[in-house]
Amino acid sequence: MAKMTLEDLRKLRESKKKEIDKRNRADKSVQIVVGMGTCGIAAGAKETLDAFLKELDEQNITNVLVKQTGCMGLCHVEPTVEVMKPGMPTIIYGDVNPTIAKAIVERHILKGELINDHIFDRPAADIVQTEKEAK
Fold first, then answer.
1. Domains detected in the chain
2. pTM here?
3. Which of 10, 13, 74, 99 is most deeply buried (CB count within 10 A of its CB)?
4. 25-52 pLDDT tens trace
5. DSSP label at residue 96
6. Are 39 and 74 in contact (CB under 8 A)?
7. How far is 131 from 49, CA to CA, in rounded Å?
8. What is the DSSP letter of 59?
9. Distances (CA, A) of 61 to 30, 55, 83
């Protein structure tokens, strides 16, 4: 391995600092939890997690905490993702591939819209409020 210059070390430190900041809960109002049990990983959860991180970076969204958990018990619809956003019900999406991950960021996180075709767990309809009703 080639020796690193001081500038290389500074760049590495800055990139790692950005990665660590993404996991800092202090300034995050929205959470995305990706199921990373063995069933989720086998179904593509790593690619889904990477897609969320990439999309959030590309859109410069900084108020979202992305974290991992074990199996959510919905093995038949892996990869599964739980999204918690103030003013909206906590939702578990299933069959979340990188394309759906991008749609979750664009529609659920940014616009406050649910992606009904991929919802596998949510509160009863009588307690679900849209973001507009919550305001």
1. 32-124 (3.40.30.10)
2. 0.77
3. 74
4. 777 899 999 999 999 999 999 999 999 9
5. -
6. no
7. 25
8. T
9. 10, 8, 15
Instruction: In whole angstroms, give the CA distance from residue 59 to residue 31.
Output: 16
For residues 29 and 63, is the Cβ–Cβ distance under 8 A? yes
Instruction: Give the separation between CA 35 and CA 18, rounded to whole angstroms.
Output: 23
CB 66 within 8 A of CB 34: yes
Structure tokens at 99: 């394309």
| Distance set, CA 87 to CA 4, 67, 68, 103 (Å) | 47, 20, 23, 19
For 131, the token pair is 């973001």
**Helical (H) or strand (E) element with 69:** strand 64-69
